[in-house]
## 1
Amino acid sequence: MTARLTSELLPDWVTWLRAPNPGPMTLDGTNTWLLDDGTVIDPGPDDLAHLEAIIEAGPPIRRILFTHAHPDHVDGVITLIALTGAEVGDPPDWITQLGTPGHTSDSVCFVAERDGQRVVFTGDTILGRGSSVVAWPDGDVGAYLNSLDMLSGYPVPGLPGHGPVLPDCAAAADWLRAHRLERLDQVRAALKQGASTPEDVVNIVYADVDPNLRFAAEWTVRAQLAYLATLSEL
């Protein structure tokens, strides 16, 4: 069932709900964020009980936003519209939408500031724990590095698409950027060792990956190889 969660880092105008869709790619489940003006960010799966929990958790739903169009974030949109009459629309004027491609080409984050409190809704660009897949062929490593550079300018709580609230979005962005660069170095080393296919690189660089996530590691490797090709390194 949907969980209603709390954190001392949350502004009092944000409610945190977690959809009942845990898994290797969704961690504990998709985080749905409800603002006190009736804005929902990432309704999550098309799970009627979850959508009803969103409706019951706060004011009437007026507006729906999403950080990217992966099914675990948007499958519930049509049903939520049918239940509430809400519309997919632009953010309220106290939320700034940032284009943050990389995980996917359509990924965005939302910076919200009100009553002296500021947070960033990071979607899957920055997860609450671990690193996000670069979802080749739509995802792009170069774009992702640029997006992390942008988010490193926001030393405020990060409210991710999956996992716990981040105390410092900027610190998380810096860590992820360093991690991505380290992975690129490992891919270069694998190629020098004789790896000739994405599968070969996965076997070397992601040898300890959960078998359930091997496909995601291969997506990221393909994106890494494409990025290195743009640098004329392949």
## 2
Amino acid sequence: MSHQLSDLLLTPAEMAAVDAAAAASGIDSFGLMERAGAAAAAAALRLHAGALRFVVLCGPGNNGGDAYVAARHLQEGGAPVALFHLGDPSRLKGDAARAKAGCALRGEPLHLYSPEIGDVVIDGLFGAGLGRDVPADVRAVIDRVAEAGLPVLAIDLPSGLDGRTGRVLGAAFRASNTITFMTRKPGHLLMPGRELCGELEVFDIGIPARIIRAEASGVIAENRPDAWKGVLPAEQLETHKYKRGHLVVFSGEADKTGAARMSAISGLKAGAGLVTIAAPDAAIAANAAHLTAVMLHAIDDAADLEDWLTDKRLQTFVLGPGFGIGARARAFVSALAERRLVLDADGISSFKDDPQQLFDLFGGEPRLVLTPHEGEFSRLFPDIGGDEALGKVDKALAAARRANAAIVYKGADTLIAAPDGRALINTNAPAWLATAGSGDVLAGIIGGLLAQGLPAFEAAAAGVWLHGEAAHRAGKGLTAEDLAAHVLPL
């Protein structure tokens, strides 16, 4: 299978449409199930050669059909196999019924399964299409398997996970390995699904790429360079600092200047031609003591800012890191309404009492990037953040549409969303990136890319990716200063 095809993300609904289109084109759907089940059996033998018993859990749909095929292959290969089924197997239909008929193993009801030492569980209960909380008997088995510490190989997706959102529906298996077919689902990448899937393998069962691509909307994708490299500025020998953009980062008061400096250095490292810290007059000395390549400009109030903005070369700004919450921040943002702005931290929180005041400032072509973590998101979008029916992708997209902004919804599964409906899931950030000040670095990187002319969504996505790469270079135990030092331009 092409690397590009396995990199696609299809929602469960899109994958169901692929299956239907494949069958309509004349492809033998049972042949696809046969290959899926055989792949699961092969993975089980490869990963768990020392298993004393393979325990195959078969659900009431096609995921269960895959599991019956896997059980048959394991048995025919001489492996010890026990089979447990959810519901009445006689009620299976279509390919799943045919798979059950071809499996000579006599199964038992799921609730009778009692874990034993040496068991390896093959989970074929639900897969990616589950849309409701798991029933009580499934939850009980999940709990018993977890308590026994048994390895789980999930077919398609650990049962109990929502394939679109990655959320746990009541309870879910924690798989050591997951094998899925043709493409991944968003739930494989979104938390907590990413953790619960363990090591993920995508296996080609023979559906033509043309069918998959025809059903793939591309609305949700993984954040990789292919998503934004097409808008990167071309490198030219004849250039100068102003062609690479001028980024301005606003500083807080004299005792709160460090965050702005980390943003400024990061923007410079990300490729901005020049960077200026705009600081209150009382904070100039504190900043000057720590800066060399970054310039300084005194700005005390909105009137000072308005005067400075007569210089039309000043088009890109970062406001929020260490700035302080309140009316001054709101006034500065109002003055910047026609410019490109990354609004972070205190800048976001300054609009918590009237978010619409912020959104009304930035109509037209998106030029605002918002970088909220979970708490800031809920303050700026309380109704969206509190809607339990929405997954993280849905929330980020709804927020992007409302704010007419690129949204960087931060977390272990940072989501980047655009007002036009595009969404990217970031996956390259290591766990050690969760440290104080890392968000200030991210804001600066995005600002540096905006200054170079990248559109808001692409600057946000590329910035998040660069942030993760810098963390890998810096290594475990990094501080925000280390992170900023390891930022490299695209």
## 3
Amino acid sequence: MRKRIYWLLPDLGSARRTMDELLLARITEHYIHFVARDGAPMDGLHAANVLQTSDLVVAAQSGLLIGSGLGAAGGVAAAFAISAASPAGIVIGMAAGGAMLGAWSASMIGSSTPSRRLRRFEAALADGQYLLIVDVPRGRIGEIEELLARTHPEAHFEGMEPNVPAFP
């Protein structure tokens, strides 16, 4: 299990040095993500992708739940309307179809919506700072925080997220 920690770094040089130190501390690149304002140089950094910078996963989960509920309700209505011999099959089939359609359509919307988790960093990013998002094993949180605080006094610890999403 991992925890997600956030650090704000003042410039590209500091961000690059932080990336190198995390790699030397055996945090793989897969768990290190950087966010900067649009057009900012990201040379040598592992840039965050749409899974970290948007609400795609949250939207897809919501669409899945809402779509399956609406599909099941439609299946019940259809089963009564046609007096089906196996109403359970109709309800289950329409719930599954609704879940797929809901997840797909909601994820399209969510991929274009900025992440609610990153809203608090918008002003700092607009000022040219770099946001480090690193997913750290629970047993190494103190070690990594101490490493970054010791080697980067110019950086600011911005908190920890209690639950790291499974996909991003």
## 4
Amino acid sequence: MLMTPEEMGRADALAAESGIDSYALMVSAGRAVAACLLRCYPAAQRAVVLCGPGNNGGDGYVAARAFAETGMKVALFHLGDPARLSGDALRARQDCGMDSAGLDGFRPEQGDVIIDALFGAGLARPLSDEIAAVIARAEGLPVIAVDLPSGVSGLTGQVLGAAFTASHTVTFMAAKPGHYLLPGRAHCGRLEMFDIGIPRRILAEAAGDHHLNTPALWADSLPRAGADSHKFSRGHLGVFSGGASATGAARLAAMAGLKAGAGLVTIAAAPQAILVNAAHLTAIMLKRIEDVSALRDWIADKRLSAFVLGPGFGISAETRDFAETLIGRPLVLDADGLTAFAEQPEALFDRLEAAPETCVMTPHAGEFARLFPDLAEDSDLGKPEKALRAARRAHAVVLYKGADTVIASPDGRIAINANAPPWLATAGSGDVLSGTIGGLLAQGVPAFEAAAAGAWLHGEAGNRAGAGLTAEDLPTHLPSIHEIIDNGR
């Protein structure tokens, strides 16, 4: 479960309305922060606790008191006027019973560990020069962030002027989108989650449509093979090849579709690409498709259950014609299949409106900017909001690729994928992703679930293949969907 800062605030309010002691929750949070420092930095000489003017600062005062109770040396600093504190934060400061100094009094010492309790996930404005100066002075010291490193937006992961780079981040009950979106993820260090006592029913009531992409989100949508299964019942995926000198991308996608569980995979190729493909194919079939008329004849066979168009296909009027012919059938549009509509994206979106959520679009940042230039340029929007607005405009599931891939559905669901290793950034990797999604679509997995599952399986394949992988390695390392089902993941 992911919760936006606004949703987490609502959960806090619902907890208080239900009779749960909000100060007891703060004490649990502050002590969890203290436990993190004591466990991770047993040789620390001094805990430097930086407290902000809200409840995040209240957690810091609780942590400071906990450190003092262990006999650790504590240096306590406050932002703003502590006399203006109210509610639980005021009580936490009073119970702390320690003197504090203004932030400008902070001077680092050898053996310091910083507790960043200035701002939590709800920060929506750039940090002041005063705080930026403190961040600069703390450079090189271990930092434990309370909820989220100060300066990182909990909603978008964007850095608001400056931000701490934490070694550990301690958050409570549910992670925020900013924990997993870049660049925020790079500022969080090791993320630790603590249950401080808010019932799950309250979290569920307050939560929205943001999710961390894990098998729990889509495993129930995966097909289960039965004793009577045969290759046609497992779906038939069609992948379109480029010309004679651009056939490799389609073969990568086709093999991934086969490994993802499709019963049959066929590469559709123009006459000049038939022999090149034939020389490299065994389990994957080959079909000659010379023009749109031949395509219409081929897809009249309803046993063809999904298609992948774009990898290596080329950018031309024919690309647009092929795409428009395929709309209405489960379809992955990637690479050239997207860029072909860069001059007139609305033509694609208008066609998709008649067949909503049958298409998965998989743009990287450059392709996204070609199709949705206004969204790409809007610095006020985070990646999830950009992907969601794009999905609603296009009437398609949008998988916005990157190190922090986001999958969005027109119905409002958003999944943030966080399991992909950096060595997936290699030529052909995206073709494997498209084929994996296509293989799932061919088996009847709905578009959003197929896109989310494909992204996770792709990341897991990268982890299993290891550093130094090439795209050719990825299909052989894809986990089988039956492994996911059998493991209950």
